[in-house]
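Appendix B, example 12.
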Amino acid sequence: MEVIHTSRLRLRMATKDDALFIQNLYSSEDFKRFVGDKQLHTKQDAERYIEENILTMYRNHGVCLLVVERLSDSTPIGVCGLIKRDQFDAYDIGYGFLPTCYGCGFGLESSLAIIEYAKQNPQIEELIAITTSDNIASQKLLSRLGFTYVKVESKVSDTIDLLLYRLPLNNHETHP
């Protein structure tokens, strides 16, 4: 994926140099609670995760989670991007931020940029989003982004309630 800029953020591909940041983000209590424990206990675990999950998704599907960093100081603060899950036809928007960045609007800003990116791709007709039933902040963000609640989704997990949201992109014009 290309580098995406907003007024305050840069969204870019992850590299091996991001391993400590990814380990820190993915090991935060909220990330493990709302996204899942990816078992990134060491820098090497995070390097492997970047290669085998993030970069492999990009090679296989042309999309992935991007590292979100502040333009002001190039500090990585989260991830945001598109995920292609085998069990769904649509692309899934995903995001996660360091707890110190909650309430700053970074999730909204980066997600809007990803939605605009998706609208430029004629193969992407709609986006989906999945969140846990107790992640109220994510549910509110999805609503602000224009997503609508669809149902409780059992294709992803049979141990916790996951809520499925969708956003039609309407990026396909019909010509007479």
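The chain has a mean pLDDT of 90. Residues 112 and 145 are 7 Å apart (CA to CA).
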